[in-house]
Design goal:
single chain; 453 residues; alpha/beta; Rossmann fold; 2 domains; seven-stranded mixed beta sheet; 15 strands; binds nicotinamide-adenine-dinucleotide
Length: 453
């Protein structure tokens, strides 16, 4: 198939390179000229494992990056919409989706053959049928269901594992306005290994995506609420508590061989300094607003957001337990990315933490294996922030270290500390280190400072 992808961002480019790898001819369209120039030169505009090699393999062969949407659509049979759907503070912002639909509709005027338009962006239920479809009809002067079809194909990839997740999906949700739209959309996934395919209408496809993200976000906030309670119960550590919960055979089943399976699902039942990224926060908020507009109060999801908004400040609370006055303290922050494996810092808990430390007058050193804090727009107005070149440098000559992102590299901390004469207080925001291996340790969901010496 010949496929146009409108929005060559994280999801769009991943979709593009992966479909190209499955033998389709791809046009990745973006309005950002610099992004298109970068992609055309074989360099992905973001960090993601496996992305660069796939892009280099397909660019100028099966994959063309362009700003010319009309030409791309003229040459293809299917168009995906993969533009951003941010939260505008009150509700989902559909302006990018609407603009993309208008441009696609206008391009469809000049297309003779039947064309399928698929929404892959995360949009609230009803958007594909009630917003995108009418815009396409109006801008093209054509009729949906006759001249073109409209589908909805939510994306479940995780940043950090995007290429692998796309190529090895756990489910394929095929939404469509009619059987023909669904059939063409499903055909695109023929080269993928056999996996559960759900054929549904567009609204159900949209709702599946929101429900999936809301469930995972709820599990995280639930674990964090339990952690916050554990932190005021002397002698109780949330790691032991949730570790005991994980052993429920409905969460980690025991096989007939006696071996226990630990599904990655239970990693969402771990405590930490909060979730971030471009999806969970905005999607949960958009669903709460969607319910509100229909007279349904989503009370659990409201609290999921409230718990998450406070969670980064638990790190500051732990710090002030040991150092009541932060002014003039030398603090290292480990990890800026919202999760390991990505350079995406959107809604990362590191941002409120760094801002708060800065406002309270700390001298901040930052280390992330991929993200450079100094050159980052988000931190440009802070003047008491510097970049540590190495993890070792970040651990040296500071009073405390706040571990924010679960980067694998940080597992080396105990080993590095063993070679140092003086040790900072380590505050583990992901509970990824063994407290017994660190001389001065505090963590989310742990009542007091743990001293191994
Ligand atoms: N990032 C994720 O992990 C992830 C996972 C699943 C679903 N999603 C959803 O996918 C959608 C896209 O997310 P993303 O992270 O890839 O966003 P992104 O911001 O990385 O990319 C969006 C791209 O669309 C481009 N764009 C906007 N309007 C355009 C137009 N009219 N024509 C051409 N290009 C246009 C922008 O320049 C940008 O490059 C969102 O709805 C998001 O919720 C994201």
């Amino acid at each position: 198939m010949r496929i146009t992808i409108v929005g060559a961002g994280f999801v769009g480019l991943t979709t593009g390179v992966c479909f190209a790898d499955k033998g389709h001819k791809i046009y990745c369209v973006d309005m950002d000229k610099d992004k298109i120039a970068k992609i055309s030169s074989g360099v992905p505009p973001f960090f993601e494992k496996g992305m660069e090699s796939l892009l280099k393999k397909h660019i100028h062969k099966d994959l063309t990056a362009t700003t010319d949407l009309k030409e791309a659509i003229k040459n293809s049979n299917v168009t995906f919409i993969t533009v951003g759907t941010p939260f505008d503070g009150k509700q989902i912002d559909l302006s990018y989706v609407k603009a993309a639909a208008r441009e696609i509709g206008s391009a469809l005027k000049e297309v003779k053959d039947y064309h399928l338009v698929v929404v892959k962006s995360t949009v609230t239920p009803g958007t594909t049928d009630e917003v995108v479809l009418p815009i396409l009809e109006e801008a093209s002067g054509k009729t949906a269901g006759k001249d073109f079809g409209v589908g909805m194909n939510p994306e479940f990839l995780r940043e950090g594992e995007a290429v692998d997740d796309f190529l090895n999906p756990d489910r394929i949700v095929i939404g469509g306005m009619d059987a023909k739209s669904r059939e063409i959309l499903e055909g695109l996934y023929q080269g993928f290994k056999s996996i559960d395919v759900m054929r549904v209408d567009n609204k159900t496809a949209e709702m599946i995506k929101y429900t999936s993200n809301s469930l995972l976000a709820t599990m995280i906030s639930f674990s964090n609420e339990i952690a916050n309670l554990c932190s005021v119960i002397e002698g109780v550590d949330v790691v032991d508590v949730l570790g005991g919960v994980h052993l429920d055979k409905r969460l980690s089943p025991i096989m007939p061989t006696g071996e226990r399976v630990h599904p990655s699902f239970i990693t969402y039942l771990e405590s930490g300094c909060g979730f971030g990224g471009s999806c969970f926060p905005k999607d949960v908020k958009a669903l709460v607003n969607f319910g509100e507009n229909r007279g349904v109060r989503m009370e659990i999801l409201e609290k999921v957001i409230a718990v998450n908004n406070n969670q980064p400040f638990q790190m500051i609370a732990l710090l002030t337990k040991h150092f009541p006055n932060i002014q003039g303290l030398k603090i290292s922050v480990l990890g800026i990315a919202f999760k390991p494996g990505t350079d995406d810092i959107r809604e990362s808990p590191s941002i409120p933490i760094i801002n708060e430390l800065s406002a309270k007058g700390a001298a901040i050193k930052v280390f992330d294996p991929i993200v450079q804090a100094e050159s980052n727009e988000t931190f440009k107005d802070l003047n008491n922030i510097s970049q540590a070149e190495t993890l070792e440098d970040a651990l040296t000559d500071v009073d405390a270290v706040l571990l924010i992102t679960r980067w694998k590299e940080f597992e080396k901390i105990p080993e590095l500390l063993r070679c140092m004469k003086t040790h900072p207080l380590i505050i583990d925001g992901r509970r990824m280190l063994k407290k017994s291996e660190i001389s001065k340790y505090m963590g989310i969901g742990l009542n007091q400072i743990y001293s191994s010496s």
